[in-house]
Design goal:
With 214 residues, the first copy, chain A, is α+β, with helices and mostly antiparallel strands. Helix content of chain A is 50%, strand content 7%. Chains A, B: Pfam families: GST_C_2, GST_N_2.
């Protein structure tokens, strides 16, 4: 059985829980709180020198890191990553877009608002993160407005799972998603896919910070 | 024939030139200077709404974006991306590592030093970029020191091409690569692969800024 090491309120980690659940695969989940140093212990760094979750471990001890690489491996040979080489590369393109142009702004804004102290100097970067995050949301909106129902091709798949992870909680980063009607409809479509499972709510202390204005 | 839209001194763009050359494939290269707004014209945004290079266009007009997704597509079925699904996922893991934990620090430090004015406020971020970039280099050094000759598995491939792109010019970002003997040897191995082609030198004005201390 696969073991997933992850922080439950991390979109990157939740991607794997969502796909594994929708694939109907059993897995063991080990909570790793990356917000308090648990990815920087000697034991964890021995498995992933980059000190990040999520990470999966097979029964024979083999390790795979990087959420979107893990999505690809899990989805190989399933309906979640289909098509010819060109279509599969388009999915990869969205996965790299998510990690380079989306997550570093939308997920990081959420992290700073919820997980950093109210007097953190990082909060000064929120305005810039918002600007870049909105650029990513606009690119997504344009794709959907051009008549595409999904990001993974003809059907729901791993590009949708990867982009959904932090888009659905973009409001927690201070992004007004009501500006993107196509994205809102797509989020609703994802939530209706068979076996969908939502990310758990953040801890109370985090939620109370997220509820405050900037 | 494939058309590559790229800025010649961008490591992300040069990745494609290197792989296409080593594959012996003909291609057309269209210079796009992303440092002076050429990726933000209506014509370019019509092809890539995310406004970035590199981008490839097929003869029938189909577009693929994101350097590492393009590497995967080009390498499909070639010796540059081999192995079983697990091994290919390990290559993807390095590609995501490169775009998330390496390029945003090492490439961005080089860009700020060479392409931003000497009085740019972005230069204040260099110290932090160095810290994170050195973490990435340390992860690479550890992989090589564990007895791996390459990042792509048993042989040179697209994970090496992706990581080489900005590691070989890390010094231009102010990184002292002499601290990483295994990386230096690996860089030399890459430069000896058949058909290797180096990235062109930056324009004189950029090179003169790169030559200055911080």
């Amino acid at each position: 059985m696969i073991t997933v090491y992850g922080y439950p309120c991390s979109g990157n980690c939740h991607k794997l829980k969502l796909l594994l659940t929708q694939l109907g695969r059993e897995f063991k989940w080990v909570d790793i709180d990356s917000t308090c140093g648990e990815t920087r212990t000697p034991e964890f760094l021995g498995k992933n020198p980059n000190g990040k979750v999520p990470m999966i471990e097979l029964e024979d001890g083999r390790i795979l890191t990087e959420s979107n690489a893990i999505l690809c491996w899990l989805a190989e040979g399933t309906p979640f990553w289909t098509g010819d080489a060109w279509q599969r590369a388009q999915v990869l393109s969205w996965l790299f877009f998510e990690q380079y142009s989306h997550e570093p702004y939308i997920a990081v804004a959420r992290f700073i608002r919820g997980w950093s102290p109210l007097d953190s100097p990082r909060r000064a970067t929120l305005a810039q993160l918002r600007e870049r995050g909105h650029q990513a949301l606009a690119v997504m909106e344009q794709h959907l407005a051009a008549g595409h129902e999904w990001f993974s091709g003809e059907a729901y798949g791993i590009a949708d799972i990867a982009l959904f992870a932090y888009t659905v909680v973009a409001d927690e980063g201070g992004f007004d998603v009501s500006r993107y009607p196509q994205i809102r409809e797509w989020l609703a479509r994802v939530m209706k896919t068979p076996g969908f499972v939502a990310m758990p709510s953040p801890p109370v202390e985090v939620a109370s910070r997220l509820a405050l204005p900037d």
